[in-house]
Amino acid sequence: MLDLSFSATTLPRTKGNLGVDWDRNAWGAGLFGNYLGRVANYNNDAWTQPTWRFNAGTRYDVNDHLRLSLSVNNLLDKMPPKDATWANYPYYDTSWFDSAWAAATTCS
Hints:
Elements: H1 6-10, E1 15-24, E2 27-36, E3 51-63, E4 66-73, E5 100-107
Antiparallel strand pairs: 1-2, 2-3, 3-4, 4-5
């Protein structure tokens, strides 16, 4: 058993974000990484592995009032680390691992 409080084992102690943007004339792109530190497994006797999730996007400014964009969340379609001590893989919130893409038009 890990000798820690409940919140110290179920909430990651470390989280982080890292991003880079690029712009050239009417085009732009970005790559963003989200880091989630380790959390205790369900049995509270070991740690899961920390993990990264990457998102990317691109955009094109048609004119001063119209922008087209495309973004992809969870670019590498990476799933959270497995916890063999819990049958309902995994037992913690995994919403930030969902893969998705979106297209948008912005008009001002």
